[in-house]
Amino acid sequence: MRRIVLTLAALVVLAEVALCAGAYWAMRQTPDAFGRIVARLPMPLMMAVPFETLWTRARAGAVKVGDPAPDFRLPTLDRQSAVQLASFRGDRPVVLVFGSYT
Prior knowledge:
By secondary structure, this protein is mostly helical. The chain has one domain (2-88). The protein is built from 4 helices and 2 strands; from the N terminus they run ααααββ. Strands 1-2 form a two-stranded antiparallel ribbon. Helix 1 (2-27) packs across helix 4.
């Protein structure tokens, strides 16, 4: 009986490790790819992983406080043109605010 319990416990731990590794891999993908992956997962499965901890590590990036922001390009609100961060270099300070307003 003890051997069966130990085998089941090992399988549960192995399944949890595999689930966390898969979630971490998915979180390292582009936002569009991550959204497609998560949309197919049942919610109880997502509740089985330490989501916030994995997300913080997977999306941390390499930029440190004081480093220049990496260049990026985004469409304007009317989608008629685009704005590139590099176009503001050397002018005056630029504040970048990232967040969700939904």
